[in-house]
Amino acid sequence: MTTYAELNWVKHPERTMQQLIDARKRLDDDELKDAIEEVLDQRFPHWQNKDVGIVASGQKAQTYAQFRGKQKVFAASKNAYAWLIGEMLNTRSHLAFGGSVFQEMFVKGIRGARYLALVPEDLFPAKSNVEIRAMKDNFWHELPNGWALYLKLNGNQKLDRLRGLAAVCGLEYERDWNWHVEGEEESDLSDFDEIFAQAMLDSKA
Q: Which among 9, 32, 152, 170 counts the fewest CB atoms within 10 Å?
């Protein structure tokens, strides 16, 4: 849980844009990342358009995605992420949203984070419907089946979600899907299929 001291550090008026971006890049705490992004959006509205902001946010980097022979290039990683999630879910059209494995491997994160919901209101319970609709395409995406996908993730978080869903759907990295964000080093995911497969077996035991 984010502490009062951490929030004070983030909201201090002397904190520079670069300090905030660097802190955001290093953190694993989703709640604190969101707090940093709120401050950046308020104090430095164009922070993602600056070179340093683009690199740190991962939102504007050209991304190459492949799914079962279909290859696409996207202007932003969030668009590639949404496309791949949609393609993966299409392979399991009868996947139960409330299934324990699906919830654990993809839908829910630590500290109450939600990455997918039946309706966007469940992703942003503190926001009004008007606010939530205004956030579409930047903070969430409506999938072909009507579910709401949370988009405000860094590169590692997107990749973790893709790995988890791929495991649920029985898809293998490189054989069935691939992902590369321009400017980032290639990830070696050769061990992850086995790790996630074992995790799923353990959860069913």
A: 170
